[in-house]
């Protein structure tokens, strides 16, 4: 199964993962998958992003680390630091200037699963922890101005799993959605006017893979959330940046029904 499409900055191709591997789909015909050589990176998951110039794909591997891979394939470079055997990095965003990656750091404290927003230089270096609490945070992605990181969280919920959308400048946290559905993976458009996201039915716990009534929604500065499509999907449908560079389209995955 293929998941998590990224749209290339030149608008010519998509990147998807499948079976621990990475592939490119040329949009001119969309019929041939071109595998990207990961250069020795362990099997990857569906959290990957493209650098703003399209030259590098940053991936999250099943060993818990982040790697930089040339988009043309070839020798890889580990970006993330060792933060203990139980710490896992899940990548979701890159800053507009390409200098910084935003990821979710997953760890366990006293048998409690903790997920916070972190950043790290794309060239490697010291991590910076952006959120530090026991709320379930995920989907950290930079906005086009580089000032805000958008993410989903249960921080204002009184019910387990009831995630909503937020953004943070590092000092301020603002809530963006306020409804009964479970909202995940905010993706700001390149022109900054819209946020596309995945909305699960009320009561959904986490972001499972096979769910009916998954909705792709659009949020603008002056409108209520608008449903664009309802599908059978979930985890991997649209959990990484997927907007076209001109902000007119975004890519997503709908799962086959049985």
TrEMBL record:
One Pfam family linked to the record: PD40
TM ranges: none
Protein family according to the UniProt entry: Belongs to the TolB family.
Protein name: PD40 domain-containing protein
Organism encoding this protein: Kribbella sancticallisti
């Amino acid at each position: 199964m293929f998941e998590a499409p990224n749209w290339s900055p030149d608008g010519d191709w998509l990147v998807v993962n499948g079976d621990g591997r990475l592939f490119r789909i040329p949009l001119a015909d969309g019929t041939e998958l071109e595998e990207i050589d990961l250069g020795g990176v362990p099997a990857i998951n569906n959290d990957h992003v493209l650098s703003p110039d399209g030259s590098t794909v940053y991936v999250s591997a099943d060993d818990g680390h982040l790697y930089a891979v040339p988009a043309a394939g070839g020798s890889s470079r580990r970006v993330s630091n060792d933060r203990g055997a139980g710490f896992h990095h899940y990548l979701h965003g890159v800053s507009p200037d390409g200098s910084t990656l935003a990821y979710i750091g997953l760890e366990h404290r006293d048998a409690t699963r903790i997920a916070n927003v972190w950043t790290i230089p794309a060239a490697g270096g010291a991590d910076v922890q952006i959120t530090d609490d026991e709320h379930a945070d995920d989907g950290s992605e930079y906005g086009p101005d580089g000032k805000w990181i958008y993410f989903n969280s249960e921080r204002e919920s009184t019910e387990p799993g009831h995630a909503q959308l937020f953004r943070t400048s590092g000092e301020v946290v603002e809530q963006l959605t306020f409804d009964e559905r479970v909202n995940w993976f905010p993706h700001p458009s390149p022109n900054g006017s819209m946020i596309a996201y995945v909305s699960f039915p009320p009561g959904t716990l986490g972001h499972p893979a096979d769910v009916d009534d998954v909705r792709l929604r659009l949020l603008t500065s002056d409108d209520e959330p608008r449903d664009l499509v309802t599908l059978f999907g979930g985890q991997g449908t649209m959990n990484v940046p997927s907007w076209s560079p001109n902000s007119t389209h975004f890519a997503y995955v709908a799962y086959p029904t049985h």
